[in-house]
Every structure is written in structure tokens, then in C-alpha cells.
Amino acid sequence: MAQISPYNDSMRLGMGFNSFTQRLCNYAVRPVGAGFEAHPDPPQYKTSAVPHSGNISNGYEVMWTAKFVNTMSEVAQSLNISGAPQIRCDFAPPGGAKTSASFNDTNTFAESDINYLIQVRVSHQRFNHTEFEFIPNLHQSEFTRLYGDSFISGFVEGGEFNALISVKLRDRSDADQVKQQLEAGIGFTATARDLDQSQSAPIDGEITIAVSWKCGGDILDGGMTEWTLNSLKAIVMEFPRKATTCPMRINALLTKYTSLKGFREKDIQGALNYENTGLYTAALLDAYLDYKCICRSIQQISRKVEQGEFALVAKEEMVELAELFTEAKEMPNGLSPYKGSIYGLVKARKDCRIEMLKIIREVDTVEEQPQVACDLTRPQQYLDPAMFRMLLPTTQDLKKARAAAAQEQLSCADLTRKLEISERERTAAEISALGLANELK
């Protein structure tokens, strides 16, 4: 089964491709019995008539997906994006290349309590019914760097719509209820009654909707000015019809060089195999984005400390981390908790960036040595973000502390006042009882 990768206008039939970095490479194949056209133009599509019914014809396949996602690696996998270019493009300076998953802001994703991914994919695979042969007498030194591990053997045409709904709740205890509400209102199996019920209860929180799509036509209604849950559902349901009206290339089909007889007959040095790197690369992506969020959080806390809104308290030494440090390699700060001061935060932020650089370096290592992704005996090359968080000082919100202290002081004053009143009433009662006793005598 051929792999697929997001399409871009630079792709051409027969072009080499690195499936790990998703980078275009030099040509290493050519069609059998035909001249090799190095730069054929992509096909030009003409708008056809919209189908009269809701059924999609002409061999198009429609796939609907709506699911909750917890990590960015799940989003990247759903979009057929490798973790390696995601990490590199995020680290690249402004103006660098971006991947298809960049339609979503990673900070918004990390800070949200609920992330709901919706995808509609209308596809028609166009295998070119062309046999390819390996070009003889290729330069074999560092083969993968020059030619990749696969080549473009065809394209997937149609349309693709992606939407990520991120919800930051005011009360996290409402998470289950809001999930049910999203499934009822946006899910593809929802009934009209479910939709009415979901609209009757507004979501108490901040909602962010990130959208991207690929098709040759305008999918937006003329009067639409913003994305809402209602408008999103309407566009999603209508998208397949519009995608088949004016399709475009959405993916490239990739074929491994090992499928070619001419390649197998040669003892090629430097040809690499990335088939078993997916899980490890996804873990690298999630760890990298976790550190990105930690670094941003440290910066925000530092600002609060400087403004006198937060106070810091260093954590105590942890025996488990000390034991881990004796087995670990190049870990920051000796795995000791950071100081409860602005200087401790500065050191933590620096170490956080170092860990991000280690992950980027690990991506480079996997590209050159794919076998390390499956080496269970190899020490971890970076500190797990969860352990790094354990080293950070805890914060105290001084505003809340002052408000709580003031409230406690008011409560104490009120209690004292009530006690004084009670004491006066008791004394008056005793005097009255004493006077009555004297009269009886």
C-alpha cells in the first residue's frame, strides 16, 4: 500500500521524496518506455456541474471524521504529516516553510481543555498506470540524502477540509457535558433533535475554531463573516459536493524504491528505511511542544513575579530524581529543583530551551540513523517534560492570598464582634437574674 503526503505545487511525477522529513529530492526513477519529462505541469481542472443528488459519483470516496484529540501528534497523524517537519518548521525563524498542521496554534491547543478535530476528505486516487524503472549509474554515496527513500508515483485528487475546535472552559468540571454537546451539535451522526438541544445550552468558555481546506472552489457562503459552530456544521455537510465540483490535488502517492527490481538488484550504500520511526517521532513532537508550552509558562510567571502578583516557593529535593540523575545523561541542573526566585526561573527557561534543542538534534539523528528509533537500550536523549515540571517552583497568587487574608480578617472581626455581643448579653442576663434573686429574698 502506497504512503501519502500532503501535496504542494513543487511535486512532480517520479520525483524522489524523503518520507521522514517530507522533503523533495532528486529524480531516481523514470517511466518505462517513455521519455522522462523533468518538470511536467500539474493538470488544470475545469469546473464541472454540481451533482444533483447528495451522492458523490465519478469514483470519489468520502470519509468523515470527528474525534477528540489530546496531543498535537494525533492532529499531525490525521493530516498525514510527519513529526520531523513539524518540529523543524516550528523552530525555524519567521518566514520559513510551514506545514499543513500550522493552521492550528499550538499554544491555544495546549491551553484548551477540549480539542475536537473534524475532517472531511473527498478523494480519488489517480494511479498513473505507469511503470517506473530505476535510473542506472546514479551517485550512490549518501543515497537517501540525495534521492530520499521513495518516489512520487501518483496523486490523490479531490478536496480536504480540516477544522479544530478548541475550548477553554471556565469550569473544568463541565468538560464531559461540553463534549457531549459538541458531539451532538457537530458530530456527523447527530440528529436534528440533538442539534436543537446543543444550541439551547451555550458553552461557558472561550471557543477557538481553526480551519483549513483544499479544493478548487469557494466553499464559503457570501454572507458568512465568522466561523461559528452552526456555520461550521453547514459548510462541512456541503463540502463533498463542492469539492467534486472543482477538485484539486490534495496528496502525493509515495512508493518505496525497494518495490523496483532495478533498485533491489543494486547493492546501494546509504539507502535508509524510515518505516519504524513513526511512533518515536510522534513522541518527539509531543515532547517538543510540551517544552514550548513550559517555556511560555515560565515567561508568563516571570512577568507576574516582577509585577509583584506572584510569589515563588522552591520544591524540596526528591530522592527519585536524584537516583535518576545517576543513570541519566547531560540532564539540566543536576535534576535538582530550581530556586524559588526570578533567578531560578531564568535558569529554568534556559534549560527548557536546551531540552528543545536536544529534541531537534534527536530528529537529525533519526534522519541519519533510523534504527535508533527502535533501540530500546539507548538512553533517552532529553528529559521528559513531566519530570522537568516537577523541578519548577510552585507559585502563590499574592492577589488571591491578600484577598483571602482580608476575608479571613473580616471573618475574625465579625466573629469577635459576635462574641462581644454574646458576652454582653450573657452579662446582662446574669445581672438581671441576680437582681431578681435579691428581690425574692
UniProtKB/TrEMBL annotation:
**Domain of life the protein comes from:** Eukaryota
Enumerate the UniProt keywords alphabetically: Coiled coil
Q: Where do the coiled-coil regions begin and end?
A: 398-425
Protein name as catalogued: Uncharacterized protein
